[in-house]
Amino acid sequence: MPEAESSRKDPTRRTKKKEPVRRTVSQICPPPRRPLTVADIRPGMENQRLGVVRDSMFQNPLIVKAELGKPRERSCSLPGVDFNYGLYIRGLDGGVPEAIGHWNVYKQQPTCPHELTRNYIAMNRGAVKAGLVTAQENILYRRLNDIRISDQDDRRQKKEPPAIPPNMTFGIQARPSTPFSDLLQHRYQQLWVQEQKAAQKAIKLEKKQKVVLGKHCETRCSLLRKYKPPVKLDALWHMPHFQKVGPHLDTFPTEADRQRAFKAHLEEHAVRQGTLRMGNYTHP
Prior knowledge:
Layout lengths: L1 H8 L15 H4 L66 H7 L18 H10 L5 H10 L6 H7 L22 H5 L2 H23 L10 H7 L28 H13 L17
């Protein structure tokens, strides 16, 4: 008995840990719900019906009712249990064992032999050296001496890419970050104010240094050049029998009274109402 108690209280003894419960794939991702059938209907369910009942009745979304506490059944028929959804890609590389065993290297396809271009410069040079000048002689010379440009010559004629240093960085260089301390101290505002003050000082200094020329004296020639002789405007034409017609109504006894009335009207023009300023006063 004491040995059993000591074994229970021994802290060095390891206790067996419970293994975590592993959920299956069907529990993590349950399969989609299939449409109801006659065999799934139990007494007391919402879709229980009297009379003749067919499986097609439970595939009509207008007739199927949602069960209490369960999601609505889909009326679409699904394939069997052995059906795999998605695109099945068959492995052609042998999987992991073959990848570990050897490395599959892509075999380069043989290139088709292409016909080399004719070297007309060399053929024309040889024809001139041989003393051939006419077109027919050149054609015969080219048939006998068919000179082609080799692949190596083609490579030399093509422009080679420029030499790029190994430590070169491609792309647009990022601008330096703005110092945050200058933003808090309004440093840029102070610099702008200083620049504006310096510009104003430069403008004032330039005005002081500018030579002000004195006024030039006008001469008779300059005055005559600017003088414009007055043009006498002819009076408008009027019919003769309307030229000496006097006014039919004259409310003023004399001309002095008339001028005095017009003068009073002009003095009160600003404080009277109306378009012609002949109405009431604007303020009492």
